[in-house]
Amino acid sequence: MSEEVTVGPATYTINIDDETMFKWAIGSLLSDGGAKVPPVHSFVGIPANESEYPNCVTVEAPALLPKWKDVQDTIEILKDKERRNWIQGQAWRHRTDEYPSWEEQLDFMFHNGFHAWKKLIKDIKDKYPSEADAVEENWNVVRFERDCLLSECDWTQGSDVPDSIKLNWQSYRQALRDITNQSDPLNVTWPTKPGQPFWDR
After folding, report:
1. Which of 8, 29, 122, 198 could form a disulfide with 129 if both were Cys (CB 3.0 to 4.6 A apart)?
2. Residue 40: how many CB atoms within 10 A of its CB?
3. Domain map of the chain by residue range?
4. Cα dihedral sign for 164, 170, 173, 179?
């Protein structure tokens, strides 16, 4: 299946094979039990609906056949990952085609300065953005706010601060440092400052 996806000013062509996605989803679900190798299974076409599904997949133990809804949900997850891979790959190829050679970049930097070179590269990257760029930018915003919150309470770790106060703030500060371990930069759960209600961190 071919589709056009627009990211910023760029349009990318994505080719996702429905049969491959279906087989990947079945294999993934059959492996969820922790087996290194999925149970023996085979395919006969791609089901168009739930009623056709049992006739399209044969599993050595029929009870292990994944539920139709789980298959559909897994296919959507895999398609989303595949779309991101296609976008990232095409963005990288387009950028690579337009980047000057290293010799040309060094010459440009020598005659125009480092900041001009950074703008040259950034303009090309902005011309062919990827979803990963947007995610990283959102994480940069989170990191900035995190760093501001850490700076606000640096005083709590001073040498003249009582241990009772230091210890009370250490877990909060560590939670701030770990904030980027969360999965979504647009839906971050911030830790609560010691002694403050959750609505006023």
Report:
1. 8
2. 10
3. 2-98, 100-129, 131-181
4. negative
Distance CA 184, CA 198 (A): 20
The pTM of the full predicted model, rounded to 2 decimals, is 0.58
Q: Would you put residue 8 in left (φ > 0), alpha (ψ -120 to 50) or beta? A: left
What one-character-per-residue DSSP string does the chain give? -EEEEEETTEEEEEE--HHHHHHHHHHHHHTTTS-SSPPPEEE-S--SSTTTHHHHEEESSGGGPPPHHHHHHHHHHHHHHHHHHHHHHHHHHHHHHHSPPHHHHHHHHHHH-HHHHHHHHHHHHHHS--HHHHHHHHHHHHHHHHHHHHHHTGGGG-TTS-HHHHHHHHHHHHHHHGGGGSS-TTS--PPPPTTS-TT--
Cα dihedral across residues 81, 83, 84, 85: positive or negative: positive
Token pair listed for 41:
């299974």
Cα dihedral 96, 97, 99, 104 in deg (nearest 10): 120
From the CB of residue 30, how many other CB atoms can be counted at a distance below 10 Å? Answer: 21
